[in-house]
Amino acid sequence: MARVLILGGTGEALRLAEAAVAAGHAVTTSLAGRTESPRQPAGALRTGGFGGVEGLAAYLREEAVEALLDATHPFAARIAANAAEAAEQTGVPRLKLLRPAWQPLAGDAWQQVPNLEAAAAALPAGCRALLTIGRQELAPFLEREDLGLVVRSIEPLDGLPPQVRQIQGRGPFALAEELALLEAEAIDRLVTKNAGGKAASAKLEAARRLRIQVVMVERPAPPPGPSVARVEAALAWLAGISP
Ligand code: NAP
To answer: CATH number for the domain including 50?
Structure first.
């Protein structure tokens, strides 16, 4: 059984922590600390940044971590790169748990863009867009005063201009909810990052049904190294490296 550090902040990280504890591993989940009342993982929890690669490498050594599981969000590029580098420096085996990206289906009208700046630039003047991208990345959209914006986020947002409507919510969202929201807010563009997974995918089905165009922000490339898509595969990897 191994001493395991899970870099969390996703539903998979919670499921992985539960399964790894059940399998007898000594599990600590690490959260960045952005969400005020996060869901509590099984095992131990630590919160807050490590202080870059050096801080994470020091933590791995001090805590005698034997396996590092990066189960962070597909768009959390900084911590993923730090995890790869710190694992390299310390010789701690690392695995990336990365859920598959969403793929367009028949009936989808997606415009795929490389980043959020390109997403903001892709919106036509006068459109009414629902943004489900996280509160820290709104800046390029707020610069566009010619857009009607509805922003959905987990935490309340301060300092938004009065013309921007704010909706609080934490997934998973049901299809009926998403359809009702898109219709009630008269949305004609949906802006989302290609997070993948089921918890946030109902909005894509709703957009398909209502023939709403989707501006889909593509993922950053993950660091090189081993990667699995499913919690079960991560558990099997853990069993394989356990001393
Ligand atoms: P990021 O840009 O890759 O990371 C920024 C910094 O936050 C990292 O350098 C690290 O600080 C700290 N950090 C990030 N994840 C951490 C973790 N699990 N434990 C301890 N420190 C962590 O990440 P982000 O986009 O800000 O995301 C932060 C967290 O929110 C991630 O855990 C991610 O899974 C979750 N999340 C992100 C998104 C998204 O769209 N980006 C969506 C949902 C959930 P130090 O350098 O000081 O160690």
So the answer is: 3.40.50.720
